[in-house]
């Protein structure tokens, strides 16, 4: 299947939300802008992440618009994590992006607000997104890049049976790469 054919057959915008036992995984919205700004600028949260921090809420508005455009063009899918009882409250995010040309491999990325860390939320979200990737998008492999010193992220991936690879991250040399493959 060509990339163009895939784009016509699968539209990420048709996957508005996913559900877990405790959470709703939904598209980002304007209501998320202040928490998103905090998440992308807080030095402690971004200790292991190398990305340009937004300077204003207008930058976050552009970020949200770009993530929605990614959905519309099926280049990436970014979900906001929200508790079921508070669907407008952003507690974190998870995404599938960096799809391979044949659309069989994608990278997963995630972050979680400090108030919700250590309570199993990201593990729950990761399990749901892996299931979605393998069973809905028919991915064969999901990879995760994480800083070698980010012990909570490494533990999360290892608990979810991701295995450490010898793949090198050419952009961030301090990252290590984990993978999970679909049983075919």
**What is the 3D shape?**
globular
Q: How many helix segments?
A: 5
Provide the residue-averaged pLDDT: 92
Instruction: Give the structural class.
Output: alpha+beta
Structure description:
It is a single chain. Helices cover 31% and strands 24% of the residues. With 184 residues, it is α+β, with helices and mostly antiparallel strands. The protein has an eight-stranded mixed beta sheet, sandwiched between helices. It is globular, with a radius of gyration of 16 Å. The N terminus is likely disordered.
Write the layout of secondary structure elements.
Elements: H1 3-9, E1 17-19, E2 23-26, H2 33-41, H3 57-73, E3 77-83, E4 92-97, E5 105-112, H4 121-135, E6 141-147, H5 151-159, E7 163-164, E8 175-181
Parallel strand pairs: 5-6
Antiparallel strand pairs: 1-2, 2-3, 3-4, 4-5, 6-8, 7-8
Key words describing this protein structure:
184 residues; alpha+beta; disordered N terminus
Short description:
This protein is an alpha+beta fold and 184 residues long.
């Amino acid at each position: 299947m060509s990339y163009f054919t895939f784009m016509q057959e699968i539209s990420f915008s048709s996957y508005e939300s996913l559900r877990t036992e405790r959470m709703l995984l939904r598209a980002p919205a304007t209501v998320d802008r202040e928490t998103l700004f905090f998440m992308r600028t807080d030095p402690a949260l971004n200790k292991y992440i190398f990305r340009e921090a937004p300077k204003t809420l207008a930058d976050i508005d552009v970020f949200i618009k770009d993530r929605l455009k990614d959905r519309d063009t099926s280049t990436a899918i970014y979900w906001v994590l929200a508790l079921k009882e508070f669907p407008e409250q952003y507690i974190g995010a998870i995404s599938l992006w960096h799809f391979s040309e044949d659309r069989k491999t994608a990278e997963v990325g995630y972050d979680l607000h400090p108030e919700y860390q250590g309570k199993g939320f990201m593990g729950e979200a990761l399990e749901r997104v892996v299931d979605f990737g393998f069973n809905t998008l028919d991915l064969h492999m999901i990879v995760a890049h994480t800083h070698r010193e980010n012990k909570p992220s490494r533990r999360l991936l290892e608990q979810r049976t991701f295995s450490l690879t010898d793949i090198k991250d050419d952009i961030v040399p301090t990252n290590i790469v984990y993978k999970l493959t679909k049983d075919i």
